[in-house]
């Protein structure tokens, strides 16, 4: 037998529920109960409606059955069901109440633990309904805050903007001066490099001349020594 799980699960109830009040299809406690025409077999309305899309018989007694021929469950059944105590569907959000099944819809509508979304622009945080006002007005980082001296703050902000604009102009001028100094330093560095190259060339020329002079001097000294030696030999003879 197919199970559509449209009824109320047993663990949601404060006390065990008689099998008399269980759907023969989903096996859960009846939700919006209806019955077949003759034998009053009970089903959740959704469960039996889905069943009758494929089968035109009662799943319990197998008698012919259509959606049109379904009957409301007996009043005694609906009355007893409405008095059963069931846990609020928001128990996982903190609601610990058990309410009568007949009042469940009203309780769920008013429950302070129902989810609610912050309406502040850009927030979209989901909180419990009972905490929504406090969140929106006191906790939300995107909440609108009442300003007691907005005009004064606005004037101060305008002054700050003017000062920032002036500082930006000064910084722009300083930046331009730095660019000019950097270009000047580049030119000076190139000039120094050229001067160093000229000095190096001149120094190398001086060294070459000194070396040439030294060589010439040594050659002359040798010639003089040879001449003196020849003169001495002539005299001694």
UniProtKB/TrEMBL annotation:
Listed transmembrane segments: none
A Pfam match: zf-C3HC4
Single GO biological process annotation from the record: regulation of canonical NF-kappaB signal transduction
Keywords: Ligase, Metal-binding, Zinc, Zinc-finger
Keyword Magnesium on entry: no
InterPro entries named in the record: Znf_C3HC4_RING-type, Znf_RING, Znf_RING/FYVE/PHD, Znf_TRAF
Keyword hit for Plastid: no
Gene Ontology MF terms: ligase activity; zinc ion binding
PANTHER family (alphabetical): RECEPTOR-ASSOCIATED FACTOR, PUTATIVE-RELATED, TNF RECEPTOR ASSOCIATED FACTOR
Protein's name according to its UniProt entry: E3 ubiquitin- ligase NRDP1
Originating organism: Paramuricea clavata (Red gorgonian)
């Amino acid at each position: 037998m197919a199970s559509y799980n449209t009824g109320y699960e047993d663990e949601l109830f404060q006390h065990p529920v008689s099998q008399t009040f269980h759907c023969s299809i989903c096996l859960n406690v009846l939700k919006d109960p209806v019955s077949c025409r003759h034998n009053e077999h009970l089903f959740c309305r959704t469960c039996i409606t889905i069943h009758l899309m494929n089968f035109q018989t009662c799943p319990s007694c197998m008698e012919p059955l259509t959606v049109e021929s379904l009957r409301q469950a007996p009043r005694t059944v609906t009355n007893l069901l409405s008095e059963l105590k069931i846990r609020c569907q928001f128990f996982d959000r903190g609601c610990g109440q058990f309410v009568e099944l007949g009042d469940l819809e009203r309780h769920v509508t008013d429950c302070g633990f129902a989810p609610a979304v912050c309406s502040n622009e850009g927030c979209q945080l989901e909180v419990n309904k009972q905490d929504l006002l406090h969140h929106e007005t006191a906790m939300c980082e995107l909440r609108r805050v009442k300003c007691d001296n907005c005009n004064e703050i606005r004037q101060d902000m305008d002054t700050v903007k003017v000062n920032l604009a002036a500082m930006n102009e000064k910084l722009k001028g300083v930046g331009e001066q730095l660019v000019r100094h950097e270009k000047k330093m580049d030119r000076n560095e190139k000039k120094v490099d050229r001067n160093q190259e000229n000095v190096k060339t001149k120094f190398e020329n001086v060294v070459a001349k000194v070396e040439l002079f030294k060589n010439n001097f040594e050659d002359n000294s040798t010639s003089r020594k040879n001449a003196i030696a020849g003169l001495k030999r002539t005299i001694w003879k």
